[in-house]
Design goal:
By secondary structure, the chain is an alpha/beta fold. The chain has 2 domains: about 5-300, P-loop containing nucleotide triphosphate hydrolases (Rossmann fold), CATH 3.40.50.300; about 315-379, no CATH class. Helix content is about 30%, strand content about 15%. The chain contains 12 helices and 10 strands. The strands form 2 sheets. Strands 3-4-2-5-1-6-7-8 form an 8-stranded mixed sheet, sandwiched between helices. The protein has a two-stranded antiparallel ribbon with strand order 9-10. α6 (about 110-115) packs parallel to α7 (about 135-140). The structure holds adenosine-5'-diphosphate and magnesium ion. The site of adenosine-5'-diphosphate (ADP) has 17 residues, from α1 and α10.
Length: about 375
């Protein structure tokens, strides 16, 4: 029996490609023969709609899992042979308020996971665009985090807060939590800026390799998801990209991403994922900028790694079928040990260089010129 592995796809920014990635990566991994369950934890229910499921039409949803003690298996809908979706509901938006007096409210999904007989190889959770209670529930229940990023102006802004939240959850609630990878979405293949953002992030991650943080082993997925209009069109048809346009760049990119994912998740040889992929000359065709541009990305000093003392708090096969046959108990979510001295480096990314431009060519959509940024350490 496979050991279910749970991934939370998070980024507190909206519109970076979380839902598109969960839907199409999930469909691609399922099409390769792996049993996948997707959980829609966003009250906007975009993932639910992406698979043609009308929010509220199924009897049970993730709302019932979190608030009415339903099991995950009873709420899931079968989409294809290997793919199930636990749908969302607009009412989920009220969950943060309804759960305000509930003790352990950030661990409800983890408890359901532990109690449930999830018989999937992979569970992938689509999170809302915030670091609130719903995202905390995903982090508490997950084994690993995937972070979609759009490589443009301020792409890395907010990453420090996101990593700090992951670190707090890892230290206080879920010791096994790791940041597995960063996925670049809506990537402009010919732009200098996209290559620069990747290089900045590589440098930052490389500087963290010997640190004891949940992101010390984080990979940048070699596959970049190019901007492709077919990916934007398919949700309105209630289809994943493989049903809607299997020959599109979008379909090719998500199939390739599924290979990266399986390598990272341990289902295939990890040869594609060795180390961190450097930007290719094509991606950085303009001359590179002085090294000073990325000076802020340095190894965390002891002062920078002082542990934050506050508790974990929220900020505020192609697709289209139905089952429920559980067989295997999921891993238990353990209580976190007491605070460790190795806290996360508090990295914050700020915009500093407004003169950077991008030149988009090729088959992808274009973006207006954008400006660069420099990650800086914050004591
Ligand atoms: N690679 C892509 N190319 C073109 N449009 C995309 C791509 N990825 C996502 N989109 C579109 O961008 C918007 C935001 O993506 P979405 O996945 O919903 O982001 P998030 O879940 O992070 O808010 C959606 O309209 C989606 O269809
Ligand atoms: Mg979304």
């Amino acid at each position: 029996m496979p050991h279910v592995k749970v991934f939370a796809v998070i980024n507190q920014k909206g519109g970076v490609g979380k839902t598109t990635t969960v839907a199409n990566l999930g469909a691609a991994v399922a099409a390769k023969g792996h049993d996948v369950c997707l959980i829609d934890l966003d009250p906007q229910a975009h993932l639910t709609l992406h698979f043609g499921i009308e929010p509220g039409s199924p009897d049970t949803s993730i709302y019932d899992v979190l608030l009415n003690e339903e099991s995950i298996t009873s709420a899931r809908q079968k989409v294809t042979e290997n793919l199930s979706v636990v749908p969302s509901l607009v009412d989920l938006a009220a969950a943060e308020v309804e759960l305000v007096t509930t003790v352990g409210r950030e661990q409800i999904l983890a408890d359901r996971r532990a109690a449930d007989d999830l018989d999937h190889e992979f569970v992938i959770i689509d999170c809302p665009p915030s670091l609130g209670l719903l995202t905390l529930n995903a982090l508490a229940a997950a084994d690993a985090v995937l972070i979609p990023l759009q490589p443009h102006f301020l792409a890395l802004q907010g990453l420090g807060k996101l990593l700090e939240t992951v670190s707090l959850v890892q230290r206080r609630i879920n010791p096994r939590l790791k940041v597995a990878g960063v996925i670049f979405c809506m990537y402009e293949t010919q732009t200098r800026l996209a290559g620069e953002v990747v290089a900045d992030l590589e440098e930052f991650l490389d500087s963290m390799r010997d640190q004891d943080t949940p992101w010390s082993q984080t990979k940048i997925f070699p596959t970049r998801i190019r901007r492709n209009i077919k990916l934007a069109e398919c949700p309105s048809y209630g289809s994943c990209i493989f049903d809607y346009d299997p020959k599109s760049h979008g379909a090719n990119d998500y199939l390739s991403l599924a290979e990266d994912f399986l390598a990272i998740a341990g289902s295939q040889p990890a040869s594609r994922i060795e180390g961190v992929t450097k930007a290719t000359p094509q991606e950085t065709e303009a001359p590179s900028e002085p090294v000073s541009r990325i000076e802020g990305v340095t190894k965390a000093t002891p002062q920078e790694t002082e542990a934050p003392s506050e508790p974990v708090q929220p900020d505020t096969q192609p697709c289209s079928e139905q089952d429920t046959t559980p067989t295997e108990p999921a891993a238990q979510v353990k209580d976190a040990p007491a605070d460790s001295p190795d806290a996360p480096p508090s990295q914050q990314y700020v915009a500093t260089e407004p003169e950077r431009t991008s030149q988009s060519t090729g088959d992808d959509d274009t973006q207006p010129p954008t400006t660069g940024q420099t990650p800086t350490s914050q004591p």
